[in-house]
Amino acid sequence: MQVYTEQKKVGKQSVLMGKKVAILAAATVAGPKESLGPLSNFFDRHYEDTILAEKSFERAECRMLEEACYLALGKAGLSPEDMDYYLGGDLLNQVISSTFCARSLAIPYLGIFGACSTLAEGLSLGTMLIQGGFAKYILVATSSHNCSAERQYRYPTEYGFQKPGYSQWTVTGAGAVVLGPAGGKGPRIEAITTGKVVDAGEKDPYALGSAMAPAAADTIYNHFVELKRNPAHYDLILSGDLGGVGKKLNEDILAGKGFDITPYYTDCGVLIYYPHQKVNAGGSGCACIALVFLGYYYQKMLAQELKRVLLVATGALHSPTTFMQRESIPAIAHALSIET
Amino acid sequence: MVKNVLSAFLFGGAICFLGQLILNFYISLGVPLQQAGNPTVATVIFIAAVLTGLGVFDDIANLAGAGTAVPITGFANSVVSMAIEFRREGWVLGTGSKMFGLAGSVIMFGVVTAFIVGLISALI
Hints:
The complex is a heterodimer of chains A (340) and B (124).
Chain A: E1 9-10, E2 14-30, H1 32-35, E3 45-46, H2 57-76, E4 85-90, H3 96-105, E5 109-111, H4 118-131, E6 138-144, H5 146-153, E7 169-170, E8 173-181, E9 188-193, H6 208-226, E10 236-239, H7 243-256, E11 265-267, H8 268-271, E12 283-284, H9 286-302, E13 308-316, H10 320-324, E14 331-339
Parallel strand pairs in A: 2-3, 4-5, 4-6, 7-12, 10-11, 10-13
Antiparallel strand pairs in A: 1-2, 2-8, 2-9, 6-8, 9-14, 13-14
Helix pairs in contact in A: 2-3, 6-7
Chain B: H1 2-28, H2 33-53, H3 57-64, H4 66-69, H5 72-85, H6 91-98, H7 104-123
């Protein structure tokens, strides 16, 4: 029996999906600082504090994630029973927010970890599962929480110290997506470029923008080369959470390789907060791209204001143990071409 | 850089000025100068601990940098913030064992340095 029937792969990292799978619905839940940011009106639910009357920040993060999942399911007019798989991940050890969320959803669950690139990783895998005929509907969700991430990766939340200007603020929030067969007006997944782990040798756990920018540039470059495209192919190229420092570095690396992305390019970490919100170089975390893309740009795609978007989610794949042991920070970026 | 140095200088100076006022206050109560230092330090630690508990110390420290980190306030903040953070993991294995997670190295190297300095001064 021949299992491998249809050749979708183009080059080493890219696959063409042919717009058969669509984002049927998306929902976002935002924390307090995000609710005061410039995109606040586009989020579905807002919270004024970070604890949500739960007993820990971890519980609060999990609840935001659950609410995002149920909101997305509601918007799609589907129930958890209709979902074939739930693909989820977050920043906490053993992806506990997603796992605990899966406990209440009771959908067959695949936990994934790509740090802040998790949303794109989930969308990629979900699209492949549906197109491979293994599922009809898939729930993809991710979350991050400033306080639970800070205490895991850095210092206690009330510890006072000065962060360097290139540091970023972990976004508190959650986003969820229902993937399903294309048909309605939901934007469709056209191509996927899966990233390689790129390590530029950055060792400073606050310099995540410059640690992740080389990975983003590598994935975007290979996407263009393998699919024979150029930046003008897209209305928008959107990276996840490079922040001000990483965004500039990404532009510079790609310009050096002959692709000027600047006219089409922006970064979620730069967009999510106002400069006066004391976030230094911008936002980061799984929820950064989830809130900005699913909250804002997804709506723009539904309204046909944007037709072709290249979504590039970036993740820093270090752990508190590895940076204490002076290891450098490996990074990854996954790209999805999404079209209306 | 210049802004950080300046604000560290101003905040650090302000804390030391406050410390001097507290010291003078204790002396005015009749505590001898030699012994007035201890209640002064305790008072400054108490203020830093309360500010940490109220959630304002980290905002001040973000501006002040070394201005709050170098005086005893930074030490107090590191202990109290760890105590609060790990309260949810229980009194014994949370707060109890994690409280000195950040301050532990200050205590360790402080004791070692004191021992070496003491040894040198005894030999001279």
